[in-house]
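**Protein of interest**
===
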Amino acid sequence: MRFKCLVWCALVGCLGLQGVSLGAQASNLISDDAWQLVSAGGAEARMERVAVKDGPDGNSSVIRVTISKTVDPFYSVMLSQSVKPPLAKGRRVRLSFWARSSTGNRVHTVLEKNGPPFVPYASVTPTLTSQWRRYVATAVMPVSCAPDGAGVRLQMGYKEGVVEITGVALQDMGPDPQVAAAAEAIRPDAVQARIRQYRMADLTILVRDASGRPVPDATVHVQQLRHAFLFGCNIFGLQPDNQEEWQKGYQRRFVALFNYATLPFYWGSFEPEQGKPQYDRLDAMAKWCADHGLAMKGHPLVWHDVYPRWAPTDPDEAIPLLKARVFDIIKHYGNTIHYWDVVNEANSSPDYPKTGTGAWALRDGPAKLVGTALDWAREASKGLDDVLIYNDFNTGQQNLALLSALEKDGKLPDAIGLQSHMHGGVWPLEEVWNAAQRFARFGKPIHFTEVTVVSGPRPQGYSGIPPRGSWLTTPGGEAQQADYLASFYTILFSHPLVQAITYWDFSDRGAWQNAPAGLLRADMSPKPVYDRLMKLIHGEWWTKADGKTDGRGSYKLRAFYGEHRVTVTAADGRTAVATVPMPMGSGAKKVTVVLK
């Protein structure tokens, strides 16, 4: 997820839209006469209202924006206004507008929080045609907004050209029934019932002597060794050869809590000089992870950001290089890394046309890009047990549409990755459940890939990323972080299709956006959330049982999916040990342990 900041350099007038027709539907929450044109950072644009005879849906005038000079980012030119009425949590809102462009311009239209961080609530990003078309985005409000707490922006600074807009409407469509259903689904009793149903299975241990006869009254001890569910974090702070105390603490606490690590393969930092990828650095990290029993994921292979300065911006030149990169990295780590974020955030890639990846997505569409890259990865990983993931922070309609297009072409990823960076405020727990439910329709495993919850209030006075050291963790923030993440993890652990949760970042040291986002403080001391997760992952959700066999030499228990050590001791002191794998969703298991 990208953090947006905007210096509001110039407000060039206000215009109204006449003749807007909403029919007998809900009233419009935005005003026809409150639109402001914003041009920032040296961008040049002008706005005028013009009368038209062919206006859609009865509209007789339109706003025409002529963009004569663009600069990065794309939101350097926009139409903007605040939403005067309050918006209530749990209400479904619909943002719609009519638009056309004789120059084929792109418009990112969004309802978002006013002020940084600009958290989006509903958005749609069409490439306009010369014909009038209506565009619609709907969403359920995850939070309540006070009057003027949200705004509607039509951001169009992608390229020079002419854009015409009319009939912009934001409507409150009423309470969303999915919110009520989610409230029922996240009740503690419902959550615990699902955990028992989907994360556990019956394990029956049959104890026999060397002749195959049952051994009654034998003592059985069952100890879980590892989870089948992937509990992980990015491990970007790992320095395998560093013997400093802070690094020892980082390593020790990571392996104590997690069984899964995400390694950095950002193209621009992995291969800052063409033809010289930094395999030595990543090899050392991967070896350390393998030596400590961690499953690994590489992140990401194809992305528009952290793009090498040397790499071409022409898609026809970039595509062969991207293909070679996917093949080289997957084959290099064929026996080590078995999870890959093949493509990252393709829905946003067209917003970055000055990179080869972005230009490719803009030309051919995000779904084509993702499908092609997944084809490469499947070919490269042939014969390997790899899981190929598409990863995105977009958890709404745009991402659903992309995945639906992949499904139609028979090119769905092996797993769907959903990000949940919450630097600007936590998701309601109902939305946590609903996000998983929305993507469950594809029947694929769901990975929550980038979970961030901060443990201190954002410092005031910064429109962008605060300076390092200014965003501090606090005791109250740490308590809230612990409470929220305990609920967040528990709800997702109960969802039948969620198979992985990856936190982002492990410690406050070097955390993204300079935020106090870690489970550890910068000195590697654990925050309360670390201990809470330890009690869940290696306590409440960890099999540890003792008992005795019955008269038939049988002992039965309910065990979490994963790997277990079973130790059996007979009354005469004979002992046998067996390792019992219980893969995810494999169902009831019977194992025979022979005492010799």
User: Anything to note?
Assistant: The chain is about 25% helix and 30% strand. Residues 259-413 form a domain with the TIM Barrel fold (CATH 3.20.20.80). The first helix runs from residue 177 to 185. The mean pLDDT is 93.
